[in-house]
Amino acid sequence: MSKTLWSAVLMSLVAGRSWIFDDESNALKYIYGLGPEMFDVPNSHLTDKQCQSLGAMIDALSHKGSGKECYEILEGKEVGGWAAGRNTLDKWFKKQKVSGLIGEWIDRVWTMLDVSPMQLIHEGLEEGEEFPNILDAKRAKEDVILVILGDHALEKNARGDFHDATATIIHHAWERHRKRFKHAERSLPKKKLDAAVAVKAIEDAEVVTTRMMREVTKHVKALQQAMTWFPKQKDHITEYEKFLKEVIITAVVTERKVPKEKVAVESEDTPSRKRGAARAQKVRIASLAAAGDVEEIWALYLQLFETELGQLEVPHVEDDEDPSGWEDWENSSEDLGVDGWREMDNGTLNHLLQFPGGKPMLFTEFRSKSGLCAWEDMSKKFVKENNDMEQLSLLWHQCVGVAAIVDKIWLSNETEGDIPGILITDEVGVGKTVKVQQFRWVSGPGSRLREEEI
DNA sequence: TACGTTGACGATAACGTACC
DNA sequence: GGTACGTTATCGTCAACGTA
Fold it and tell me: So which residues are the signal peptide here (predicted)?
C-alpha cells in the first residue's frame, strides 16, 4: 500500500523513538513539537483524550512486527478501529504545520547542496529529461534526514521501517517540486500572453497610468517566476524586464531632472534587451512624471528586480522641498486607508513623525550602490566619504503608511469613517518592513507622538 | 483556482534462498 | 561459490482528490 506523508512521519518518529529524541539540534521539538514522551504528555494542539487515542495507536504500532501492518493501522481501509487515532493524527499534523516545516527544511538542505530540482534544471538535464531524477539529489539524503529527524538520526543502521519512512518523506518533498514545475509549465503560455498584452498596452497608450504600470509589473513578475524553471527560454522575459526598466528609469530621470547615468548602471546589451529598450523609447511617459507616481512604480520595480538590487541607485528625495506627488493622490487614487494625508507633503509628514531629514533618528543613513550589506562592517564603508554610498530617506508613501499605522492602531471602537487597526498587504511595494520598524520607533518610549494630533 | 496530498501502478534494484 | 528465481524495496510518474 502507499504511504501518506503523515503516516510516514509518525512511523519515522515511532521507529526511531528510542534514539532520535536524544537530539541536541532541537529539530524534533521545532518541527513536530514533540519530545521523547511524544503524545504521553499534554500537547498544545490536542485534548488529553485525543492524546490518549493517539498514544494507544502508537502502542499498537510498537507491537506490530512489520511496517506493512503498521501502515494498515495508520491508514488502511481494511483495518478499522483506529478512527479516533487517525483523526487526531490528522489534526496534529495540520495544526503543527508539519508538512510545511519539513518541506521548508528539506528545501534548505537541497538548495545548500545545489541539488534542488530548480538548481539541477539550471545545471542542465540529461537528453530527453524534463525534470530531474530524485537520485540526482542522493548525496543530500543523509543531510536531509539529519535536518528533519535530528542529529542522531543516522546513528542506527538506516534500514527497515525508519529508512522506509524517511524515503517516503523525501519522496513527497520531491513530488511537491515536480508539481510546481508542472504548474509553471502549464501556465507559461497564459503568463507570456498576459505579460505581452500588458507591455503592448503601455506601448500603445496615449496616457500611461500607474495602474497600467502596476498591471505590467505584476504580469512580468509572474512570468519571471514561472520562467525560473525554464532557463533556456529567457528571451521574452529579458525583453520585458528591459522594457520595464527603461520606462521606469526614463520616468525617474524626467521627474528628478538628473542624467540617466546617475540613475542606472547599464547592463550588457543582448538582442532581447535591445528590443525591450527600443519598445520602451516609444512609450509616452509624461503622465508618470508626478513624483508620487514615480516613487510608487520605483518601489514596484525594486520589488520585481529584487535579485538585482545594487545595479540601480534609489532616486534621491531632496529633503522636504519636493512635493513628491501627493497631487495625484488627491486627483485619482482610491482611498487605501491613508486618505487623511493626501494633502500633506513630505515636510509636513516628516515634522509630524519627527523624521529629521526624511527619516527617523538612528535610521541607517546610507545605502550602498554596489549592494553592500549594512550589517557588515558599517563603520568603515557606510560613511559619507565613500562614493559607493547614497543618502537614504523614506519615500512619501512610506511616511504616509507610518502615519496611518500610528493613527489607526490605537482606535478602540469603529466610528463613522474610522476603523481600528490597519492591514499592510503583501506584493504591492509599499515597504512593509520599513513601516513596521518606523512605527515601532515613533511609538516607542519617549515618543511625543501619542500625545499629538496623530 | 492553486496547490498540496494521496493512491495506484509499472519498472528496476536489491535481497534472500534453493539448488547445482 | 555461482546461478537462477522469487520476493521485497525503492523509484518514477501521474491522475484524482481535498482544501483553503
Answer: 1-16
